[in-house]
Design goal:
379 residues; alpha/beta; binds ligand G3I
Length: 379
Amino acid sequence: MDALTRRAFLHGTTRAAVGVSVVAWGCGSEAEQETEPPSPESDSLAARARARGLLYGAAVEADRLSSDGAFSAAVARECNILVPEVSMKWAALRPTASSYDFTRGDALAAIARSNGQRLRGHTLVWHQALPAWFATTVDAGNAERFLREHIASVAGHYAGQMHSWDVVNEAIDTSSGRADGLRDTPWLRFLGPRHLDLAFTTAATADPAALLTYNEYGLELTSSAARRQATLGLLTGLKDRGVPVHALGIQGHVGGAAWSQFDPVAFGDFVDRVVTLGLKVFITELDVRDDHLPGDQTQRDQGVAAIYKAYLETALARPQVTTVLTWGLSDKYTWLASQSPRGDKLPVRPLPLDNAMQRKPAWQAVAEAFQRAVARPTS
Ligand code: G3I
């Protein structure tokens, strides 16, 4: 299989829903509403997504899947793509400057394979989650060698298995004082902006089949205008220089007090401009902070669901948005529990399933957003 065919195969989604009616229910035309709702056993976000040529998945870790049967069953049922939350970052893969430990990443790849799920890689270049030795070992003199070797080794190790790779993550910080809005990172300090080109070209050689993605957060709000502009500038530069970049990953960590600034028009226009560059768009890390919502569980769950609905309505109106991942699947395992706890100390509820793997209104909102989405072309 040539590289292009392999890329299409790995990315390709099929509209053939396994055992699931593709006809909308609970929304849409009268004729559609006459269709029986699918049974909970046969229904899933994966099936709803697949029916529209979309992929749906979540960030997970292999150790949690191995130790928690109910979680593992939920992930197997609801997802058709997985991404490691932690285990493919530098700090996890690089115990020393001269060694790699693929154990946890390989375990997740094996689980995805046995579930028949696709896999995303996250992330090859990031200023966070670097191993302790990095600060005392990597410098301007050797940074290019470290960057090339890391990407060649890691993307090479998983070559042929990845739907896509987050090649560069979060390179924008509009408070950096730079005209291009690039973040002050070790990579920028050591190599300048050319580290972006270097990362993508090295990844393309190491894994010619994966869709190479630039991944960024903070793009949805009225106050995100400068971040949107800098992101467009970064992507335009890559495209103008002929650098192999195939997609923008929009993280989508939304909600909280800032949600009142959600700007669906500016966000939608931004996605359209990214598409004009010839890029696909993935929603890569969606979750909804609930610290601005009342403690009452019913009201809170409805508030979270409303945010999923509004966000996905805007995103999925664009057929080039082909993939949606939430950053976790169940409230039992979410980074927001420690990073964004509620003032009233109630457990946070940002994801589609609750602690007991039961579907919440957020699940329903995502399911209905998929159901309403226009079918993506089968590639
Ligand atoms: O597993 C160890 C545990 O053994 C140890 O006792 C504990 C002590 O701190 O640390 C645990 O590892 C933590 C790991 O999450 C698992 O919970 C790491 O310290 C912690 O740094 C790590 O945080 C992750 C963070 O990225 C940095 O890698 C978060 O889980 C993860 O959700 C977060 O994900 C990022 C995306 O990569 C990029 N976008 C934003 C997103 C949220 O910050």
